[in-house]
Design brief:
alpha/beta, Rossmann fold, 13 strands, 38% helix, globular, binds nicotinamide-adenine-dinucleotide, binds uridine-5'-diphosphate-glucuronic acid
């Protein structure tokens, strides 16, 4: 198995790279080290992988790099590169979302179809944010997409491209709709990362809205296990929800943050953010059936591990 992982230096991508290398796969990682957050963090994410003989890192931007050489000898693709934040996708920043999430995906699919039958699977990251305000909880995959943010729109477009290249060009595509992933290496713009940092600094956390919103938080190792399975399992559907197995309100999460860190968590409320779904909850029966997927890490254990990582990061940079 030779796997091309895009977004290989990012939060989920680097965790997938480590898991693939542990099982003996050859991995080509591609990343543009975009500055959405400090690229030094992304280099640190790959520190272990870069010591492994099975890993090759290519620093390249999928928007413009020649992609066919990248796919040379590759049997499986995990396409995770994107601009990922929900709340920052309004206004002029949409251009970057459209280029990185839609255009780059189309370029990669075009290069993938040129490989013909040599490519066994092309898995790409989609998002719970495509559902917007769904009519059913937990939400099954056949809920019509009605994203509330421009970011969600780019993920609907990603999925539509995957379907088109599957139906018309034979690329064996699968989309995974991840639900708010957390754990070691979590992006610093994401909620749990920010909440632990605020607690550590003795600052109040910023809560958007009343704190009653809910998320189906998914531990990163679970998301990675599902992604690994989707690379080789005999799939029967074009898209799978990947959720953490339970839904928690933000105010309950903050109690758990206080308990995991042993620090007080004061709250400062701000207006709800445009584009943020109120609630998310994944129906994961399809992933259980086809990918043998079941989340293994509960919120308390997952938070303990993320907090341990964030504390260690703070010591390294102190
Ligand atoms: P991340 O920002 O940590 O990782 C994305 C990586 O892609 C970054 O290292 C970035 O440098 C790279 N990249 C971006 N544009 C690129 C380009 N044009 N060429 C090459 N590399 C490029 O984000 P993440 O949280 O690990 O998210 C990974 C994927 O999962 C994204 O597609 C995101 O939309 C999706 N997703 C994430 C979550 C979550 O909770 N983290 C949930 C749902 C979906
Ligand atoms: C996350 C990822 O950032 C997206 O890349 C991904 O597409 C999405 O999950 C998904 O599931 O599809 P989000 O759910 O907004 O998006 O994740 P967080 O940033 O961790 O936010 C979780 C909740 O905390 C949201 O309700 C948000 O409004 C809230 N929040 C976040 C705050 O109240 N304060 C903050 O400082 C940050």
């Amino acid at each position: 198995m030779r796997v091309l992982v895009t977004g290989a230096a990012g939060f989920i991508g680097s965790t997938l790279v480590d898991a693939l290398l542990r099982e003996g796969a050859e991995v080509v990682g591609v990343d543009a080290f975009t500055d959405l957050y400090d690229p030094a963090r992304k280099r640190a994410n790959l520190a272990d992988a870069l010591r492994r003989p099975g890993f090759r890192l290519v620093e390249a931007d999928l928007r413009e790099a020649p992609l066919e050489p990248l796919l040379d000898g590759v049997t499986h693709v995990a396409h995770l590169a994107a601009v990922p934040g929900v709340r920052a996708s309004w206004g002029t920043s949409f251009r970057a979302y459209a280029e990185h999430n839609i255009q780059a995906t189309q370029r990669l699919l075009e290069a993938a179809q040129a490989r013909g039958g040599a490519l066994a699977r092309f898995v790409a990251a989609s998002s719970s944010s495509i559902y917007g305000t769904p009519t059913r909880f937990p939400t099954p995959e056949d809920e019509p997409p009605r994203p509330l943010s421009p970011y969600g729109v780019t993920k609907v477009a990603t999925e539509a491209l995957l379907l088109a290249y599957h139906a018309s060009r034979g690329v064996p595509t699968v989309a995974l709709r991840y639900f708010t992933v957390y754990g070691p290496r979590q992006r610093p713009d994401m909620g749990i990362h920010r909440f632990f940092e605020a607690a550590r600094a003795g600052q109040p956390v910023t809560v958007y809205g009343d704190g009653g919103q809910t998320r189906d938080f998914t531990f990163v190792d679970d998301a990675v296990r599902a992604t690994r399975a989707a690379l080789t399992a005999p799939v029967t559907a074009p898209v799978y929800n990947i959720g953490g197995g339970h839904r928690v309100a933000l105010h309950a999460l903050l109690e758990e943050i206080a308990s995991a860190s042993g620090l007080p968590v004061a709250r400062r409320h701000e207006a709800p953010q445009p584009g943020d779904p109120r609630d998310t909850a994944a129906e994961t029966e399809r992933a259980r059936r086809d990918l043998d997927y079941a989340p293994r890490t509960d919120l308390r254990e997952g938070l303990r591990r993320q907090w341990a990582w964030q504390r260690q990061q703070a010591e390294v940079t102190a």
